[in-house]
Automatic annotation (TrEMBL):
SUPFAM superfamilies found in the cross-reference section: Thiolase-like
Pfam families named in the record: ketoacyl-synt, Ketoacyl-synt_C
Keyword Transferase belongs to the record: yes
Name by which UniProt lists this protein: Beta-ketoacyl-ACP synthase
CDD domains recorded: KAS_I_II
Record flagged with keyword Transferase: yes
One of the protein's GO biological processes: fatty acid biosynthetic process
Species whose genome carries this gene: Neoaquamicrobium microcysteis
Length: 424
């Protein structure tokens, strides 16, 4: 019988439900089929004008009802859809989850069409600033107010799913989704809850966001063939592709899951984090924070380096981050890193920002459950300075029992997760 406590005497944390939405489609079935087929979800932007912009492609989820209603509405819909799938699959009640909620979400603000609507409704005779204040006081509807509040999405989700206690909204840049999982794991390990709902959601691929990232020179400008633009670890990579998506995981103590006969999809064995203050967007050249995060995750899991069988890479397709990730992994795993399979889901779905760590954790769970490693597509021009087995182009059948999933965010926020197919 499997142990229900880990090497530190903490409850073992199981995953009993997962859900996902990306530019590849809605739900586990469609996403996994597309991902393992090596299909890209990157396409030209149609949601807003792109004339005079350097980047005109993205991984937006234009098939959803809220796709043109602003970042706040879309982020909520993405989170709700993935959470519905995860909670339903877990066998728990959708309206009575009875565990804490941890939501990774982008910092939201009023969308421009809402700002302009408020402005147009105000007294034209007032000076501009007073006019805006009057509009806010007189015309601001409750839903407009909520759309500008960072915690509003989590509040709505808490009501929808019947989670317990104060819902937590967090933002740790590109590591946010993994951090939401870490917080859920730690709440269970501390004995504060038998289960937790961790969600990463991001519907913020707006014109404003595109311009901001373009000004940082972070986005790919290879617009001619959108499906070829995201090319992690390739020599001709030139930036990431902005994308939207969501993933949710139902986390549960193994003891609780077994007691109710739940289907255990995988185990979160360890979480590691390390921040640095090197630069607002750049990675520290020596990779030391990423190295520390990987080592912390392994130590938390009570595992040796040689026990990791697959790495789900952060793999953004930016020149600097991919180089740093290779350096950090090579430092931790040595020469063995040349043979450990590593792939980047972002080559197909783009960078879902706040959702990325959760999306990639779900895909890591599926990799172990299905015995299939998704490929890294667009690896047509290997970088000789980055020696990795990136599972190029085509999926690989492989029985994987342990995964390291990396999330290395802007501002030096790094979170790594170690997952296993089965408990020890």
């Amino acid at each position: 019988m499997a142990r229900t406590t880990d090497h530190l005497g903490r409850p073992v944390v199981a995953v009993t439900g997962v859900g996902v939405v990306t530019s590849l489609g809605q739900g586990i079935t469609d996403n996994w089929a597309a991902l393992t087929a090596g299909r890209s979800g990157i396409h030209p932007i149609t949601r807003f004008p792109t004339e005079h912009l350097n980047t005109t492609i993205s991984g937006t989820v234009d098939f959803l009802e809220s796709s043109d209603k602003g970042a706040s509405a879309l982020t909520y819909e993405l989170a709700e859809i993935s959470a519905l799938e995860a909670v339903s699959a877990s066998g728990l009640g959708v309206g009575d989850f009875a565990g804490p909620l941890f939501l990774a979400s982008p910092p939201v603000e009023l969308d421009w069409h809402e700002r302009l609507a408020l402005y147009d409704a105000a007294n034209l005779d007032l000076p501009i600033y007073e006019r805006l204040l009057a509009a806010a006081r007189e015309q601001l509807r409750q839903e407009t107010f909520e759309a500008s509040q960072f915690g509003a999405i989590a509040d709505r989700l808490a009501d929808r799913f019947g989670t317990r206690g104060l819902p937590i909204t967090l933002s740790t840049a590109c590591a946010s989704g993994a951090t939401a999982i870490q917080l859920g794991v730690e709440a269970i390990q501390r004995g504060e809850a038998d289960r937790a709902l961790s969600i990463g959601a991001d519907g913020s691929a707006t014109a404003e966001a595109l311009i901001r990232f373009s000004l940082l020179s972070a986005l790919s400008t290879q617009n001619e063939r959108p499906e070829k633009a995201s090319k992690p670890f390739s020599k001709d990579r030139d930036g990431f592709v902005l994308a939207e998506g969501s993933a949710a995981l139902v986390l549960e103590s193994l003891e609780s899951a077994l007691a109710r006969g739940a289907n255990v999809l995988g185990i979160v064995r360890g979480c590691g984090e390390k921040a640095d203050d090197f630069h607002r967007t750049r990675s520290k050249p020596d990779g030391s924070p990423a190295i520390a995060a990987v080592k912390a995750a392994l130590a938390d899991a009570g595992m040796r380096e040689d026990e990791i069988e697959y790495v789900n890479a952060h793999g953004t397709s930016t020149p600097e981050n991919d180089k740093m990730e290779h350096l950090s992994l090579s430092t931790v795993f040595g020469e063995r890193m040349k043979t450990i399979p590593i792939s980047s889901n972002k080559s197909m779905i783009g960078h879902t920002l706040s959702a990325a760590g959760a999306v990639e954790a779900v895909f890591s769970i599926l990799t172990m459950a299905e015995g299939v490693i998704p490929p890294t597509i667009n690896y047509d021009n290997p970088d000789p300075a980055i020696e990795l087995d990136v599972v190029p182009g085509v999926k690989r059948d492989a029985q994987v029992s342990t995964v390291l999933s990396n999330s290395f965010g802007f501002g030096g926020q790094n979170t790594c997760l170690v997952m296993a197919r089965e408990p020890v």
